[in-house]
Amino acid sequence: MAPAPMTITDAAAERVKVLLAKRGKPSVGIRIGVRSKGCSGMSYTLEYADEKSQFDEILEDKGVTVLIDPKATMFILGTEMDFVEDKMQSGFVFKNPNEKGRCGCGESFHV
After folding, report:
1. pTM of this prediction?
2. Is residue 96 helix, strand or coil?
């Protein structure tokens, strides 16, 4: 069996569970993708997934289902998805070993 394209921390899994529970309608999970944006070229996207696409990579771990857009897979191989909450900010953080750089505001990256 091939290794999972990415990993998810306990904190990220718990946050995904909370978000899905608050959504108010059934979801198969969340979908992660990348899009062109920002000064470094690409940013991560997160959205609720109402159904699985036949080409999605599927990560089922820690009680959550994460669908990875097939166009994003090559950019996020080996990435760890975490959720960080501190006095200044809270949000999902992606630790991507493929990144060659990030923009100063942290909104976008390039590989």
Report:
1. 0.82
2. coil
